[in-house]
Amino acid sequence: MIMTSGTIFSIEEFAVHDGPGIRTAVFLKGCPLRCTWCHNPEGQRFGSELMVKKGETSICGTEYTAEDLAAKLLRNEAIFRMNSGGVTFTGGEPLAQGDFLIAVLEQLKGRIHTAIETSGFAPAETFREVLGKLDLVMMDIKLVDQERHRHWTGVSNAIILRNLETLIGSGKPFIIRIPLIPGVNDDEANLEATAALLEGAAGLQRVEFLPYHKTAGAKYPMVGRSYNPGFDTQIPPRLDTEPFEKRNITTMIL
After folding, report:
1. How much is the pTM?
2. Domain residues of the chain, as ranges?
3. What is the per-residue pLDDT across 87-107, written as a single tens digit (0 to 9) for each?
4. Pairing verdict, β 62-65 and 5-15
5. Architecture of 5-253 per CATH?
C-alpha cells in the first residue's frame, strides 16, 4: 500500500467554532490564495518553515502519514460521539493537499463526523471526491466579481464559483462563511451578489459573517514577513445581513 503523507501546521482540540459539537481542527499547510487580510500566514507556504515566537525559533509544519493522522484523530472517537462533535480540516487550504486529505477521510468515514473549511479553490475532480467523503462543508465566499477577487486574493474565483454550484447541487449540508473586510467586500453590491448565488440552496444551513479583526497581522513578523493588507484596518467592516434575510437565508455573526 502506498503511504500518503501531508504537512500539518497545527492540531487544535476542543475547537467550538469549526462545526457542530466539540471538535478537533486540523490545519493543513499550504494555500494557493494570498488574501491580503489572511490571519494565518504560517499556513500559506507549502512545507515546513521556521517560525519565531517570543524569541524562540521552532519549525512550523509537521509531516504525517494519512494512517498516523487518522489514528491520532480516532483516539477521541468516543468523546466526539458523546457531544456530537468531530474533526474539521482547515488551513491553509486543505484541498491543496487533496490526495492526503482523501486518504485520511477514507479512514474516518462512518466513525467520526467530518467537516472542511475551504476557499473552494481546487480542481473540480478533487472537490467532488472530497465532497463525497464529508458530512459538512464550510466554504468561504469572499468576492463575487472576478477582477476584484483576483486583486485581493491573487487568484480568479471562476473555479470557486463552479465548485459552489457543485456543492449546491449535491444536497450536502453546508455553511457559507464571509470574512467581512472593510472597503474590500462589505459593500452592498457584493453582498447582494453573494446572497443571490445562495438563494434557494437546499443544503445551506446558514451564512456566517466573520468581521475583520485588527489582530490579523500579528503573526507576520513570526514568519519573516510584513503585513500590508492594502485597506484601512482602522475602519470597522460594514455589516449588512438584509440581502440574505430577504431571501430567507439564516445569518450568524461570529
Report:
1. 0.95
2. 5-253
3. 999 999 999 999 999 999 999
4. antiparallel
5. Alpha-Beta Barrel (3.20)
